[in-house]
Amino acid sequence: MEPGSERLLDNPPQDGISSLAFSPSSSNLLLVSSWDKTARLYDTSSNVAKGIWQNHAAVLDCTVQDDHTGFSGGLDRAVRKIYLNQPEDPGLNIGSHAGEVSCMEFSRELGALVTGGWDGNVHIWDPRSQGRAQSLPPSEKVFTLAVSGQRLVVGTSDRSVLIYDVRKLSAPDDRRESSLKHQTRCIRIAPDHSGYVLASVEGRVAVEYFDLSTEVQAQRYAFKCHRRDDLVYPVNAVAFHPTHGTFATGGCDAMVYTWDGQNKKRLAHLGPYKTSIAALSYNFDGSLMAIAASYTYEEGEKEHPPDAVYLRCPLEGEVKRKVKAGA
């Protein structure tokens, strides 16, 4: 694909798209979860669906360990291991939550899967022993989590943000209240592990830092986005570019924006797409971005465009920080 070009992924899910996850070890394998009770693996280079795994209920999130192993979870409360190179294998349930599984990420630091649920629990799973390795102290409903390097950040229904060091998970290092006044929708950790971005349902994004020193905390800020005239739209998705450290947001206004958080600048706007942006993901080197245009029922039941996944080859100006004159 040429920079700036975009194409549709063939044979997308048949219901709302909940998550997109590229393999961290190749540029072209993409796992997609959906309310149609499936997790689907695509080879984005050939635009071919390589496998479809059926679940008993809607799948709310998925993640990829490597080119061979993925995971999914959702309304059936099961945590499922998927063998990506064996599409005929139905997968393996490695455990369950007491409530619906809302979010998951694979921690390379731990070599383990981290899951969060509406039961208020965060569980750590060892994919080798195929069992639960550790559980964190319960909290309110877990809406989102992110794990990268030595940091785990959990966002809950009461707007709490729990920050853990993965080397000592017995208690959070820090517990904060979201700086945004409304419900947290998505949290993602910056590639340099200096902080995280938090998005909310009221068209705002916060840029936060882990270092508690007064000097660093003075740099945190929030800004309005995904707004049109007097309408305010939920921000559903955040994705960091893995090499440039800029980030993208997707919202119910059917737009994707890219941002230079360091310099507080918007880099580009993409869209409008045909419906809400439900999920975003960059591949391992940032040469490809997956965009899920999928109605998220923010306006209830109504006729809406078919669910779709777009594959975009970003322009440099969409993802690279602008160097200030004289810098």
Automatic annotation (TrEMBL):
Keywords: Repeat, WD repeat
Name listed for the protein in its UniProt record: Mitotic checkpoint protein bub3
Superkingdom of origin: Eukaryota
Keyword Transcription recorded: no
Annotated InterPro entries: WD40/YVTN_repeat-like_dom_sf, WD40_repeat_dom_sf, WD40_rpt
Keyword Plastid: no
PROSITE patterns for this protein: WD_REPEATS_2, WD_REPEATS_REGION
Segments crossing the lipid bilayer: none
Gene source species: Nannochloropsis gaditana
WD repeats, residue ranges: 94-135, 235-269
Any Pfam family hit: WD40
